[in-house]
Amino acid sequence: MEKVRLLIIGGGPAGYTAAIYASRAALSPVLYEGMEPGGQLTTTTVVENYPGFTDGVDANQLMDAMRGQAARLGADIRRGTVVKADLSARPFRLTLDDGGELEAEAVIIATGAAAKYLGLPSERKFRGMGVSACATCDGFFYRKKDVAVVGGGDTACEEATYLAGLCRKVYMIVRRDVLRASKAMQQRVADTPNIEVLWNCNTQEVLGDEFGVTGARLLRKDGTVFDIDIDGFFLAIGHHPNSDLFKDWVETDALGYIVTDGKSSRTSVEGVFAAGDVQDPTYRQAVNAAASGCRAALDAEKFLLGL
Ligand code: NDP
User: Fold this and answer.
1) Where residue 163 falls among pLDDT bands split at 50, 70, 90?
2) Is the CB of 238 within 6 Å of ligand 1?
3) One domain for residues 6 and 147
4) Domain containing residue 220
5) Statement to judge: residues 149 and 14 lie in one domain
6) The domain that contains 12 carries what CATH number?
7) Cβ(151) to ligand 1 under 6 A?
8) Is residue 134 annotated as a catalytic residue, yes or no?
9) How many angstroms separate the CA atoms of 202 and 173, rounded?
10) 161 and 268 both lie in a single domain
11) Are residues 230 and 251 in the same domain?
12) Are residue 55 and residue 145 in the same domain, yes or no?
């Protein structure tokens, strides 16, 4: 069985940054990128708030640069997903999607978070046929068509304004009478003429036929039920942490986020560290994920050197 000194699980800003620091500390990190190399950021377009880029930076370019930097410094970055973890004793045992197994002296979990869905059977039925949780990935398919975005946070506003540039009309389905999003994003929505906000509305059903989504049935708080005609139904209602694989071993909170010790990245298992959105329900930004990846590498270094 392959033996690894430091295994980093996850190819987002947290994982790559951990790999950069761990490589420079000569810890020979091996990083598995998982199913979404580059992480959640690759589902967006331009990143304007990552420091260091006067005019913003393309999200994919940013992630490619992080990956390239880690690789140049010596990190062994691999395609593949960890599908099973046994963190009961050191060395930790991990199983990969190709059936391979490896042992690691220390592990950094940087598996991020994934989009939430409403949980409607009709939503599941039309997933990939008009139902999507990524406007920047799929918006292209709805050019000059009508679509809806569910949610009232920054993500929903960002996706709605992005889609408004492509689509004829964008409905925002908002369950309250206010948006949770920042004032700047709210203003951007208000300034976009082809966005219509449907306040106090919940989705009862996604409507469709054999070709895909054709509409949505909504219930307004006053009891009115009505249908809208749309071709695309986009979810933007938040995320949940990708911690399922590790829940039997490391402590998680009520929402599934991995609990870390104070300002450190230490989990409840000695030698296992967590970084990025999988342990951060609050400050879920790429720059924070990168910073916590740095912390995890420094913590892992201390642990591996017995300091
Ligand atoms: P948020 O948790 O901020 O917002 C989720 C939205 O979805 C809320 O409006 C919420 O409604 C709604 N919602 C949740 N569950 C349901 C449901 N079952 N049915 C209908 N609506 C639902 O998530 P975001 O992904 O928008 O943002 C996450 C974090 O990332 C935030 O801190 C945000 O500020 C940040 N972010 C920053 C960006 C930037 O700075 N450029 C861009 C994108 C995100 P309710 O308000 O009623 O709870």
Assistant:
1) very high
2) yes
3) no
4) 117-235
5) no
6) 3.50.50.60
7) yes
8) yes
9) 7
10) no
11) no
12) no
Annotated catalytic residue 299: no
For residue 158 and ligand 1, the question of a CB distance below 6 A is answered with: yes
Which ligand 1 atom minimizes the distance to the CA of 116? 15
Q: For residue range 8-48, what is the model confidence (pLDDT) as tens digits?
A: 999 999 999 999 999 999 999 999 999 888 887 776 667 88
Question: 284 or 277, which is more confident?
Answer: 277
Which of 50, 131, 149, 175 for mutating ligand 1's site (highest number of atoms within 8 Å of CB)?
A: 175
pLDDT in tens, 179-231: 999 999 999 999 999 999 999 999 999 999 999 999 999 999 999 999 999 99
Instruction: Say yes or no: CB of residue 175 within 6 Å of ligand 1.
Output: yes
201 is catalytic: no
**Count of domains observed in the chain:** 2
Claim to verify: residue 158 and residue 102 sit in the same structural domain: no
Give 263-274 pLDDT, tens digit per residue.
999 999 999 999
If you take atom 7 of ligand 1, which residue's CA is the nearest one?
A: 237
